[in-house]
Amino acid sequence: MKNVLVTAGGTSEPIDGVRSITNTGTGRLGSLIADELAASEDVCVTYVCSESAVRPKSERVEEVAIKSVYDLQDAVRRLCSERKIDAVIHSMAVSDYTVRAVSTAASFAEALGDGHRNADDVLRAMERTDIRRAEGKLSSGMTSPLILLERTPKVLPQFRELAPGAVIVGFKLLSNTTTDDLLDTALRLLRNNGCDYVLANDAAEVSSERHVGYLLDGERRYVRYETKREIAKGIAETVTKEMRKRQ
After folding, report:
1. Do 81 and 177 reside in the same domain of the chain?
2. pTM above threshold 0.85
3. What is the per-residue pLDDT across 152-197, written as a single tens digit (0 to 9) for each?
4. Total domain count for the chain?
5. Domain boundary among 107, 134, 151
6. Using 50, 70 and 90 to split pLDDT, how confident is the model at 143?
7. Residues 196 and 222 reside in one and the same domain
8. Contact criterion met (CB below 8 Å) for 49 and 33
9. What are the distances in angstroms from CA 129 to CA 109, 116, 224?
């Protein structure tokens, strides 16, 4: 039995107990990929997704719901430690930033004081005036709230370490670029993150009816698809064939 991990949807980074910063990842494509893979009796699919993501239809797919990037990281590390992962399709839209602190303009200015300040002083002032310490909902009466963000860890490059022998498919989304630039960017992503394939797509060519995608390998060879179903079928066939070659 081959174990395949599919990530889908979009992560959500909490601001307080009821608010969050999220993105537009729906999980529609990931759910189709999971269903295509689960159609093979010798493939076991685990679907790691956001709570609001579209779910696969197949009852053979195991679902693991997460919220934040750190939840995602913990989930994939646990799954990779529990079983041998033979393939990873990382289609999830992962937040680049999480919330480090929330303050107000007035509190921040008071903490910062007079005179020239460097970046470290700014960060410390934001943290000293962070008003999230009390759990729950921030007041809707705040005047000029300030949110300090910090970068989240990159999950894609971790897969090669967590699953050394796995077939890894990354995803790259750009907007309003040329096909050559899109493919060149996807190839860099592939090489820098230990991927075997990358699905490159342009937001300008993605809609409810159409989804142009290019499945690229390490030699910059690619196959072009026109819809989400074509992409899902193409990725599933490519990954299944590659897994069987590595037996």
Report:
1. yes
2. yes
3. 999 999 999 999 999 999 999 999 999 999 999 999 999 999 999 9
4. 2
5. 151
6. confident
7. yes
8. no
9. 10, 19, 51
